[in-house]
Each structure stands twice: as C-alpha cells, then as structure tokens.
Amino acid sequence: MPCYTVSMGQKPPTHTPEKQALLVALRGILPDHSVLCEGEQVRPYECDGLTAYRATPGVVCLPSSAEQVQQILRLCNQMQYPVVARGAGTGLSGGALPLENGVLLSLAKFIRILEIDADNRTARVECGVRNLAISEAAAPHGLYYAPDPSSQIACTIGGNVAENSGGVHCLKYGLTVHNVLGLKALTMDGELLEIGSKALDAPGYDLLALLHGSEGLLGVLLEVTVKLLPQPERAQLALAAFHDVTQAAQAVAAIIGAGIIPAGLEMMDNLALCAAEDYAHAGYPRDAAAILLCELDGSNEEVSELIMQVRDLLLANGAYEVHTARDDAERLKMWAGRKAAFPAVGRLAPDYYCMDGTIPRRHLPAVLTRIAELSRKYDLPVANVFHAGDGNLHPLILYDANQADERTRAEEFGADILQLCLDAGGTITGEHGVGVEKLNQMCVQFTAQELSQFHEIKHAFDPKDLLNPGKAVPTLHRCAEHGAMHVHHGKLPFPELERF
Amino acid sequence: MDADRSAELQAAVREAAASKTQLQISGGGSKKFYGRAATGTLLSVTQHRGIVHYEPGELIITARAGTPLAEIEAALAAHGQMLPFEPPHFGPTATLGGTIACGLSGPRRPYAGAARDFVLGVKIINGQGDILKFGGEVMKNVAGFDVSRLMTGALGTLGILLEISLKVLPKPQHELTLAFACTPQEALTHITEWSGQPVPLSGACHDGARLVVRLSGSKSGVTACQRKLRGDMVHDGDKFWQQLREHQHDFFKGDALLWRFSVPPATPLFNLPGQLFIDWGGAQRWLKNPLSADVIRASAVKLGGHATLFRGGERIGQVFHPLPPALLALHKRLKNAFDPHGIFNPGRLYVEF
Predict the structure, then answer these.
(1) Global pTM?
(2) Interface pTM (ipTM) of the complex?
(3) DSSP structural state of residue A499
C-alpha cells in the first residue's frame, strides 16, 4: 500500500517536506507496494535478533534489482538520508537496527542462486540467499558450503559476510572470510565494486577481507561467490561427560595438543546442557558438570583412527563417560541439542542476554569461575555455551525484562563479562559483531587513535557517514562520555577529549 | 639480537611525516625483486625482532616484524607445528614482516589457506606515526574493521608492520607424494575430479611432464587414498615441494620474464606461447613468456583472473594487474586514510600511489 494512501478512519501521516520529497523520489524508483512507511507495515523491521533495541524505520524499501538499489543509494546520498541494509534480521548485536530518520533497505528479494560451478567448486548467489540453501543447491554435486551459524536455516549470505559469521565447524573450516572468493557491492554513492572472482586471490588491497565483518558500514552487498568443499566421506561425533569444567577445558587442550583439529569442538555447562536436553532430548547426561561434543570428519579410515585417539585423550583427561554416535541419525540428534541451546535456555527465563566474547582457551577455567562469582553478585543465573576449540564463549544471562532492575543488572553483568574477556587477552565479540550493543566496549578495546583509523577507513568508502551510521565503531565523543562513567584502573580513557 | 625498536621506528616515521620524506621500508631484502622498484630513504625493520609470544596449545604465535622467518619456523617445528600457508623465503634473510607484507603463499595454499587466512592480529605504525593494534591472538574476533588482513599483501604501502600474530597448525601426522606421467590438460582433468571428492590433497602441480600431488592426514586415511589414486610414489617428496615453494625447481631457473596467472582452478589449458608450470591445483599458473604485458593481461581477464609480472623486466611499469577505475579510486582513498602524506613505499604496489 503506498504511503500516501490513507484507509478509512486513519489519520493521514504527517511527513516533513523533506520526507515527502524522499517518498516521492523513492516511488519513482520502486513500485508503490515496495515502499513502506506506515505503522503496521514497518513493524516487522523495527529490530533484528537483538530484540532489546527497537526503532521504527522512517521508510522501508524492498528493491528487487541491482539497478534499484543503486538508484536508492544515489538518491539517499544526494538527499543525505542514512541507509541501513538488512538481510534476514537474525543478527544478534543490533547491526540491522533501523533509524527513525532513515531508509531501511531490505534485501529480502535477492534470493536467486545464480550459478553452481562444480568444476571450480564455487557458488555465485544473490545476497539474500539463505546460508543453508547454498549447501542444499550444491548437494547434488557432492559439495557444500562449510560455515554453519546456528541460524543457518534463516540467515542470509549477505548478512554472514557483513558479520563475518562463524559456526560450530569453523575450528577446521574457518569463518565466512575464509570461504568467500568474490563480492559485488555498491558504495553509498552507488559505485559498483567487483571484488575477487573464482580465482584464489585478487590484485591490490584485500578488500574482500575488509568488507567481511564491516557490519554494513562500507557497502551494500549484491552478490557473493563462495567456495564449496567436497562433502566428507564420513563424520563421527563423540560426547564426553565431565564432573568438572576445568577437566573439560584440559581435554580440549589435550586434543589440539595431540595435533588433531576436529571439525567441531563444543562445550556446554550443566545449566545449558540440561536445558538443551529438556528441549531437544539429545541424550545428554544431566549429572555432568560439563559436556564436550567433538566431531571428526574425513575419510572412513581417518575418522576411525582419530576417533579412537580422541576417545583415549578424553578418558585420560577426566571424562567419566565417552559416547560415540552409533549412526548418522544419532549424530544429528546429539548436535540438535547444541544447535538448539539458545532457544532451549530461552525457556528457562522470560529473557536472556547472549554474550559473545573470545578468550585464549587456557584462561577458560579462571574465566568460568569468575562468571559464576558474577552470577552470584548480580543474582542472575547464567548458562555457558562455548565454541571450545576456538575460545569463543557464549554466556547466556537469564533475566526478566519486566522486572525494573533486572535488565540493568543483566547489562552490567554482560559488560563485566566482556571486560573479563579483554583482561584475559581476548575480544568483546567473536562472531556476533559490535552493532549497537557493544559500542561502549569498543571504547575499552581500542584506543582513540585506533578508533580514528577505523573512521578514516569508513570515510574512504562513505565520506558522508550515511551507511549504517552509529553502528560498529563508536564516535570519540561517545567514548569520552562512556569513559567518564567507567574509569579503569584509575586511568581516564581519552584524556585529550572534552567532557560533556 | 631480540629487541623492541618500536620507539625508534615511530620517531623515524614522525620525522619523515613532518618533512614529507618518502620511506622505503626494508626487511631482509629477500623479496626486493617483487613489486615495482623501491624508492625513498631506506628504513630497516630488521633490528626490531624476536618472538614475543608462542602458545603451542592455543595454536598462536606473535613475533616482531624483523624476526627471521627461519627462526619462527624452527620454533614451530620444535613443537610439531607449522605455518600452513608455506610462505616462500626466497633467501635466508626473509623476515616475518616481509612475508606478510608480500602476502605470498606456497603449494599448500589452495587446501590450507593463504597468508591472509592465518593473520589474526597486527601492530602497525601508520603514516601519522601512531602505533596501533588490531585483531589479537584469538581465532575469532570481529571487533572493528579487519585491518590485519588488509595489511597482508599491501607491500608496506599502508603502514609499517611492527608485530604480527598468526594462527599456526600441527604438522600433518602423515604425508606422501605421488606422481603421474601425463600432459598438462590431463593433469587438470585429474585435479578437477579429485578436488570435488573427499581426497586429502595438500598440493597438486604439473611440472611440464608429470602431475605431482601431495596427500596429508592420518596414516590410515592417506594410505587408503594412495591405494585409490595409485600413481608412482615420490620418495623425496618433501624436497620436491620445498623446491617448488622456493622457486628452486629447474623451471624457475634463468632470467626469462616470469608471469603469475591467478585463475579459476579448472580453467582449461590456455593457448599462449611459452613454458608453463601449473600449481595450486590449477589456480596458479607460471608462464615464462616474452609477450607484451597487454596481451598477457587481456588473456588473464578473459579467463576470469589476473596476471602479475612476478620476476624480471624493468620494474617501472605496472607489475600488478591494473585496477578498474572505481577500485583504483578506492585504493587511493584507503592509502590516504592510513598514510596521508604518502610516505610509505610510494609506487611499490601501483604507479598511482
């Protein structure tokens, strides 16, 4: 329904003259039904997977061709309207949070798989293609796309590139950045960039890497060429139960120390594994303090040999029980519990707050102990789900947003966990991105000069700061304000900046 | 020996920025032949050296840029680990900084990943003389733009590398090399077929007479695959791959212009005169050919890839594949974002900046 059409009984929308001009121009580019600006129409776009942050988008555009996206960007660049690009909206850091004074650019219509090239083992797809759909399209050729974020049924490849998504198999197969060969993207002024190809590298700077994880600040993706891998002959999963989280952490170190790189190596603590068991009936032992899921893949012979080595290592490092999947059906059932861990934990409380820090693995026991102490301090339960192989920790803080102080307590608890990750030599986000959620923590992880360098990079692509502004990289003024609130070790960050 | 010279290097950059003096950043000089001819006042990074942190259990190593590559590889080997991208040294003086600045990778690259895939973090000096840190020592890290990978292969034009953190991997439990006498086109057909199957390849090349492949993994897995593929066992396989990595194979001898084609791996044999060596499972093809750069580059584009004049010739024209206008403009803006006075390795990558 076009924005100027008013149904019976509704008040006509009151738009500023600038916005009226924008709407008229957008309707010159798109059919009326692809420009949304009224309450009910735009509500589905008011947040992404981080539902605690919401805003009503000024206008939602649903283009269906690259030319339309290009025209919209040129128009907004000229009229100085900010633009937020959005895929499936499954992101967990508010990267696709819309702006009330801006255009929300939904790329939901870009869902064509353009080419599967079996000989070169590549797939060229539009940005709105779902992650899992790529592997489904490649399956007849015995190929698949390796990165598998838990949201892979719904999340899009464009969003995966923007966030540099991981998944449970990235220990062996890498993140999105390791599995993409080429991109087509538009800059804010509508310039088309063709980066990479089906070859393994490209001349000049590594713009492919720079666009990965850039959270929609540098360009709008149109097309992605991904690398496909041959499906492994066999995969086998071992589940080990431990009475003690520290032992589970030691077992992880022992496996990797023995020169084995499993396809996946995941840990869950008691609260998380019990929730997952209740939800998915995966066969997890409820009396364990922690479980490890260790998946090996490769040729039949290799998997048979390594699974025995892994079993011995797990038992030697304190596992009181090791179970290997009898068949593929049981293997998938055992994974189902892990993949459903977030929604499963979500049933334990009205709300949960998912953290995403990464730490050097050797600090895991100390960090988990400290998280347990903080849980008592803030009086909020926490379940821990952990990509143990690569040190990426997802503590899930349980709270009730309707209890006045619980949300504040959950946020403070979360901030303490991120500080803990930084103190351990890690990072505030392993795979979910900064978005709007971790802007303050960026002020702690980076110096003012480093943040300025990020802004310089941003301005090389988007000098007017119109593409997803206010996300991913905080302004120095914001950091100055934040610094005034949180003084670390008695040292005031950004002392050179004016306070207000 | 091991020393932290970042303060001296920073002072040198600040002085150069103030006086707009162009700097030629130099490591061990082993890859001086690569890229366009270097100009500017020499600034050596070799004294800034030493392994800062190596944690075998975490699969990470951090070292200063001037650390000899050989020293890093020896430290890793002592723990049964390696740099999986098999960087070529091209001489005993190769440093870690030069290796990452050039971003070159060896025969294992299509199967294990390139230099940029293993860079986890960097400490740099930008063109204002600021010391900045990006990334870190963890495998997964999406805080801020990925400056670490942007630095890889930038030939020092964006900043001086001070420290680099890399992901490392255990050496494979078992490896063997097999050879098959065949034509280059037959070799490409075999590689394409095997690459689409779960074959534990870790190297695949055609040296003019034979297809040579390396298999890596557990002993039982590699042996089972060997039975399937057959072929002739190459007993000094390690030496063969080492020579290929270092361009010590007979093919690379002599002064002929050496072109590097980077193309989609299954690209059929191309019809250009000259001697050909196929590596990276078809994705990297070396051609010794005196044809004009224009002819070479037009062919590379037609094949969906790009061409680099890797060695030889007057290195004053474009050595790397020229960029289309939109990308060239963006490169200049990025260069300006890091090095506003244009002091770092001017013209080493492209004529224009």
Answers:
(1) 0.95
(2) 0.98
(3) P
